[in-house]
Amino acid sequence: MEFKSCSLIVPSVLEMTKDPNMVTVPSRYIQLEQDQLDEANIDLNSSSDDFPVINFENLSLPMSHHNSQLYQSELTKLDLACKNWGFFQLVNHGVSNSVVEKMKEEVKKLFELPIEEREKLWQWPGEVEGFGHTFVFNDQQKVNWKDDLFLFTLPHALRNPNLFPNLPSSLREILEIYSSDLAKLAKSIISQMEKVLGIENKEILRLVEFDGMQIINMINYPPCPQPEKVIGVKPHSDTVILTILLQANQVEGLQVKKDGKWVLVKPLPNAFIVNILTNGLYPSIEHRVVVNPKEERLSIATFLNPNLKYDIGPVSSLITPQNPPKYKTVTNKEYVKGTFSSEPDGKAYLDIMKFVIVPSVLEMTKDPNMVTVPSRYIQLEQDQDNVDLNSSSDDFPVINFQNLSLPISHNSQLYQSELTKLHLACKNWGFFQLVNHSVSNSVVEKMKEEVKKLFELPIEEREKLWQRPGEVEGFGHTFVFNDQQKVNWKDDLFLFILPHALRNPNLFPKLPSSLREILEIYSLELAKLAKSIISQMEKVLGLKNKEILRLVEFDGMQSINMINYPPCPQPEKVIGVKPHSDTVILTILLQANQVEGLQVKKDDKWVLVKPLPNAFIVNVGDIIEILTNGLYPSIEHRVVVNPKEERLSIATFLNPNLEYDIGPVSSLITQQNPPKYKTVTSKEYIKGVFSNEPDGKAYVDIMKLY
């Protein structure tokens, strides 16, 4: 199976610690933010009695004994362990002691192999499997204090033909038995969870019953001369269905977060430590590993993931009107790919899967007693003072599109001069105002009028257009992924508008009829205008064969965001839209009133844009930066809010047809100008965009090759 994970090769920590002169830790491994020294945040009073222990023998009684007090009592303990801890130790689990002991012995021998032998099992570039470190994506990233051997073990088809046959034969032999026994045990645990949850029809078990994916990670945490400065594994929750951990020696190190404190897990001999995913009823729990100053810690983590053909989402029998879905449903391929695309960090990936609905800012500001901003909206890190107050409207590029719309026979100075202005605007600013753009004033004014009326609708009417769980479209806030995330000071209505097949049948027909009618005209006019702008860009760049235009010429995607930035009693503490570059081809912005607020970053200063009447403000998106190989860069911009007046705007975003790839166009690539960006499919690109909050130029930076 292919994962687009480019885990970097990192030197062996185990070999590094063999140096008798080593007394300090290399800077790359120092992770002081892990509150190791904060004893107030570690529960030193917890005992082994506090941590749940499940006797699986009591859950393995024959069906005729399932009504017995012994069985029901153990089932209740399992329920409470999953609900309150997300972890438990499993004793009398049915895996024979001889298999467990042999597995421990082979892992110990594995890490005792000479480095020359272990190097034969080293990760290959671009692969996640093998000896090394998983989830290391760049040379600046801090690295955990461990070595591991990471393997796909089941189904057999997933095994790496360059790796599995090269394992020591005795390790290979026990892995066959151990992996099969743990797959069977995992299914039995899930079956008991389903019973206590009242789930029928194997709604969870079916995900793994046939060809569920199993991964085994054998981990060595070497002793460290400065254990307080490093971390074996940083805090995270596991992105799998179940993890079954076997400690291969009795050195402690695993800590579980419970009620805001870190609890040290004291492993029972030959017990498995199990941690658990439902609709939030059984939460996955953050855990970490700390290292020892004198002794290595050995562990074997077995991860169970679903068969790739199934979707991941809340099971239907747990969903009720009182308990609506709290998480999105995605294909398992999408889910697994996402988990292998970033370093485990807290519960970050699970937070991405959550549905989060944010209340209306517009309604909040109607309270006449409101004088302070709720803490969720305060974003003081926005450098409000770094504004270029001396810029004038003359500084900001203005393109007269009438001069670019002359007949082809007019190869005049007027046309060439305007083409040069367009080129310089794209190259030096990434933004320009577009006047005489051919979209009639009547269409522009009607669009403004309808957007104004939209935000004047009673809240009861706007709620009919509210975002539904798992959807980005509708009234609300786009790109809000968790309840802790800071929120921009705005309300918006986001819609996919073209091609027609993308329109949301639960949303578009519910729009006010007069808004729907003008949207039909406005969206077509702006699609036509966007193509004309791209055509002129291609001319000035000397591109032929419609290398950019072809991406949008037929069924290019268009979305529209109608935005209200309400007045704010503390405007210096909030942001309308935080600094970002647009991840699209082009954005065409129409201000629906003349209240200023858009600021563009130029030479590290924020320049206020003063909109011309009925002009469009056009900006180059990240995709144009990628297509032009950086010649036309996308530019960071933001929106600040007004203490007394609302600001209304209509942003139209142009994205490519999903059938095309996104990457530097071939005619701009030379030996002197090699590609600076990756090439990916449009589907991959757009999925990535909607998985993260816009933040600076973070997404285009991910696309860079160097």
CATH architecture of the largest domain: Sandwich
Number of strands: 29
State the shape: globular
- Supply the number of helical segments: 19
Which residue ranges are poorly predicted, with pLDDT under 50 across at least 5 consecutive positions?
A: 1-5
Report the biggest beta sheet as strand number plus sense, adding barrel if it closes.
Answer: 8 strands, mixed
Number of domains: 2
Strand order of the largest sheet: 2-3-11-8-13-6-5-4
Structural class: alpha+beta
Keywords: Iron, Metal-binding, Oxidoreductase, Vitamin C
Protein name: Fe2OG dioxygenase domain-containing protein
GO molecular function: L-ascorbic acid binding; metal ion binding; oxidoreductase activity
Domain Fe2OG dioxygenase: 209-306, 553-656
Structure in words:
The protein is an alpha+beta fold. It folds into two domains: 51-308, Jelly Rolls; 361-703, B-lactam Antibiotic, Isopenicillin N Synthase, Chain (Jelly Rolls). The strands form six sheets. It has an eight-stranded mixed β-sheet. Strands 16-17-25-22-27-20-19-18 form an eight-stranded mixed β-sheet. Strands 1-10-9-12-7 form a five-stranded mixed β-sheet, with no helix packed on it. Helix 4 crosses helix 6, helix 12 packs across helix 15 and helix 13 packs across helix 15. The longest helix is centred in the first third of the chain and has 29 residues, at 169-197. InterPro entries: DIOX_N (IPR026992), IPNS-like_FE2OG_OXY (IPR044861), IPNS-like_sf (IPR027443), Oxoglu/Fe-dep_dioxygenase_dom (IPR005123), Plant_2OG-oxidoreductases (IPR050295). GO terms for molecular function: L-ascorbic acid binding; metal ion binding; oxidoreductase activity. It holds the Pfam family DIOX_N.
